[in-house]
Amino acid sequence: VIRQGAGAFSGVLFNQVKLLPFFTLEFVVTVLTFFFMLTDGHRFLNWIIKKVPIDHDLKDTLIKTFKDTSASVVWATLVAAAGQSVIILIGFLVLRVPLPFLAAGATFFFSLIPLVGSGPVWISGVIYLYVQGSTTKMVFMIIFGLAASVVDNLLRPLVLKGRSDMHPLVSLIAIFGGLNLFGWVGVFFGPIILAMLITLLTVWPQVAERYGIALNGKDTSNTEP
Predict the structure, then answer these.
(1) What number is the average pLDDT over the span 106-120?
(2) Phi, psi angles (nearest 5°) of residue 218
(3) Pair 178, 190: CB distance under 8 Å
(4) What pTM, to 2 d.p., does this model score?
(5) Which pLDDT tens digit goes with each residue over 167-201?
(6) Does 223 have pLDDT greater than 60?
(7) Residue 53: how many CB atoms within 10 A of its CB?
(8) What pLDDT digit, counting tens, does each position of 62-77 carry?
(9) Which helix H or strand E contains 184, and what residues bound it?
(10) Please, which residues have CB within 8 angstroms of residue 57's CB and are 6 or more apart in sequence?
(11) How far apart are the C-alpha atoms of 88 and 155, rounded to whole Å?
């Protein structure tokens, strides 16, 4: 059993090492994206909006959606990280694992990194309890770790819903879809792109009525052909 477990662990570790250059590139791209968004985000937004062929008032609606959703994504990330930190802190205190506040701080930091989360921290706690021979506490530490992961997937969509009026399920799909398409930075861009798409669909009847475009087979134009 030990030999099989070691072989499986070696295979997983080898696969992760192979992906290390890809993860490094994603991390660099994410950092550069945040840097340019913070230093030149306003000009970047104006550049994008100018490319959208719609009227000025509708562009203002898109800009408001972009700003509101961007703020929502940041708040959702911070709230989810704080929630995971609290759960890990409680787990370390209850199970008497050393350095609980350091673990909570590390959890907050790791939770800001997509696909990492609180895993490295609570797995370290499990290893410590295993060395101490506390099998029962190990099980509870795993439960705390899984609870932290569940809280992350619950809090993030709920905060997005509260600030950007997006259904939690849609928010969750946008997050994972963004991850799949854009990598780490997709956690932020996924919900933003989806929110702007929803806004475009919402204002489309106004555009159709303004330019006399047929909707559902009906001509919305008030002028005679």
Answers:
(1) 79
(2) -110, 140
(3) yes
(4) 0.64
(5) 767 777 777 787 777 777 777 777 878 877 877 77
(6) no
(7) 6
(8) 777 777 777 777 788 8
(9) none
(10) none
(11) 15
Q: List, in sequence order, every residue forming a beta bridge with 215; answer none if it has no partner.
A: 218
Contact 111, 85 (CB under 8 A): yes
Amino acid, single-letter form, for residue 220 = T
The token pair that represents 83 in the structure block: 């929630």
> Alpha helix (H) ranges present in 95-134?
100-111, 119-132
How far is Cα 192 from Cα 173, in angstroms, rounded to an integer?
Answer: 12
CA distance 163 to 75: 9
Average pLDDT, the chain: 76
Exposed (0-12), middle (13-18) or buried (19+): which is 10, by Cβ within 10 Å? Answer: exposed
* Residue 99 phi, psi dihedral angles, 5° rounding: 55, 55
Please report the pLDDT score of residue 191 as a whole number: 80
How far, in Å, CA of 105 to CA of 27, rounded? 21
- Cβ 184 vs Cβ 26: under 8 Å: yes
The mean pLDDT of 17-27, rounded to a whole number, is 70
Question: What whole-number distance in Å separates Cα of residue 218 and Cα of residue 216?
Answer: 6
Residue 86: CA atoms inside 13 Å, Cβ hemisphere, count? 9
Task: Name residue, tokens 């490094």.
Answer: 24
Query: Residue 218 forms beta bridges with which residues?
Result: 215
